[in-house]
């Protein structure tokens, strides 16, 4: 007759043997048959954004400006890549050390140019305020101005008009300011 300790050991050995054999059977049952299919050749390419302009020289370089003087010019921007997105205009590299921009008013109008004649879009005026404000507040895409949302390779003409205040004070004589006008497109998310 087996002692109590031997009987417990024997029972534990039986349980352990059953566990090992069950594990072996479960491993074997998963390896009988299988099948798979692959979809190959997937790739992703990012968009190439491209805006171009018909003007390669500064739009404005007037000298000897007098109070009340005004001028305008046009620039045509092309969505050369044809990417759907929003286009904004803003100021970069501004320099107004004498603070004279506050005496200029700037108007930016979106439209089209046909045979040298500018035609504004309905609700085409995207900015009509102080040049000083434009140079300090509209300085990036997020704060820029514009309504153009091209969906293909199209163009938009912008007419920019500046006016020097008729009441500009005497101390602004002989002063200079400069800035770059920048147009930027950011793509709309495709669905």
Radius of gyration over all CA atoms, rounded: 36 Å
Low-confidence stretches: none
Number of strands: 7
Question: What's the pLDDT, averaged over the residues?
Answer: 87
Structural class: alpha+beta
> What overall geometry do the principal axes of the alpha carbons give?
elongated
Distance linking N and C termini: 80 Å
Largest sheet: 5 strands, antiparallel
Tell me what you see in this structure:
The protein is α+β, with helices and mostly antiparallel strands. 17% of the residues lie in helices and 36% in strands. The protein has a 5-stranded antiparallel beta sheet with strand order 1-2-6-4-5. Strands 3-7 form a two-stranded antiparallel ribbon. The radius of gyration is 36 Å and the shape is elongated. The chain starts with a helix and ends with a strand.
How are the SSEs ordered, and which strands pair?
Elements: H1 4-29, E1 51-53, E2 70-79, E3 85-95, E4 104-114, E5 117-130, H2 131-137, E6 155-164, E7 178-187
Antiparallel strand pairs: 1-2, 2-6, 3-7, 4-5, 4-6
């Amino acid at each position: 007759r087996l002692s109590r300790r031997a009987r417990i050991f024997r029972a534990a050995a039986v349980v352990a043997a059953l566990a090992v054999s069950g594990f072996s059977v479960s491993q074997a049952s998963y390896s009988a048959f299988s099948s798979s299919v692959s979809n190959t050749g997937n790739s992703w390419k990012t968009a190439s954004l491209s805006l171009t302009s018909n003007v390669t020289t500064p739009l404005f370089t007037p000298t000897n400006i007098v109070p009340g003087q005004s001028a305008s010019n046009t620039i045509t921007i092309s969505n050369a890549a044809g990417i759907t997105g929003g286009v904004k205009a803003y100021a970069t590299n501004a320099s107004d050390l004498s603070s004279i921009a506050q005496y200029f008013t700037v108007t930016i109008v979106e439209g089209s140019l046909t045979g040298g004649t500018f035609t504004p879009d309905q609700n085409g005026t995207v900015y009509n305020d102080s040049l000083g404000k434009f140079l300090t507040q509209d300085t990036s895409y997020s704060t820029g101005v514009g309504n153009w949302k091209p969906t293909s390779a199209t163009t938009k003409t912008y007419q920019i008009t500046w006016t020097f205040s008729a009441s500009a004070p005497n101390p602004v004589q002989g002063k200079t300011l400069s800035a770059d006008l920048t147009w930027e497109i950011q793509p709309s998310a495709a669905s």
